[in-house]
Design brief:
Blueprint (H helix, E strand, L loop, with lengths): L1 H8 L2 H16 L5 H18 L7 H23 L14 H4 L4 E9 L2 E6 L2 E6 L8 E7 L4 E5 L2
Parallel strand pairs: 3-5
Antiparallel strand pairs: 1-2, 1-4, 2-3, 4-5
Helix pairs in contact: 2-3, 3-4
Length: 153
């Protein structure tokens, strides 16, 4: 049934596939289907020109579509990717790193290298030299699971 529909539509089947892929990109954006949709539209444009040639078989059409899909996807990712984009908030979503340099008061004493502080609305586990509760400390480092503090002088 689908093969018969494609035969009846001829080169326009690639245009329909391309437009459906572009519509799917609008429904579920991710900037991926747009390149595959463009590849289908290009194959459709080529098909309009060379549809009657015996060499333009469905196998060759699929091969050209696959190759164009890969090339357009890689080119689009390279052209539109911004890996080193400067941000006005480089520590956004890096909460622990954003705390380095801040000062706090020890809520629980650091004994055996472990204690707790409260910064903003969160309790943080800290490590550092043994210090009494109420001592003012500075966050020196974030290890990924806890803050390393040092006493303020």
């Amino acid at each position: 049934m689908i093969a018969e529909l494609i035969r009846n539509l001829g080169p326009w089947s690639w245009w329909i596939i391309g437009l459906l892929l572009l519509a799917a990109e609008l429904a579920a954006p991710g900037v991926f289907l747009v390149w595959i949709g463009l590849a289908a539209l290009i194959v459709g444009a080529i098909s309009l020109l060379v549809w009657d040639l015996a060499a333009w078989s469905w196998q060759l059409q699929l091969l050209v579509f696959a190759v164009l899909s890969v090339i357009l996807t890689l080119a689009g990712r390279r052209y539109f990717a911004r890996p080193d984009a400067d941000s006005d908030q480089p520590l956004l979503n890096r909460r622990g790193e954003s705390l380095v340099g801040r000062t706090a008061v020890l809520a629980d004493p650091i004994s055996n290298g472990r204690g707790r502080i409260r910064l903003d609305d969160t309790w943080w586990s800290v490590s550092g030299p043994d210090l009494p509760a109420g001592m003012k400390v500075r966050v020196a480092e974030w290890t990924g699971s806890e803050l390393i503090v040092e006493p303020m002088v």
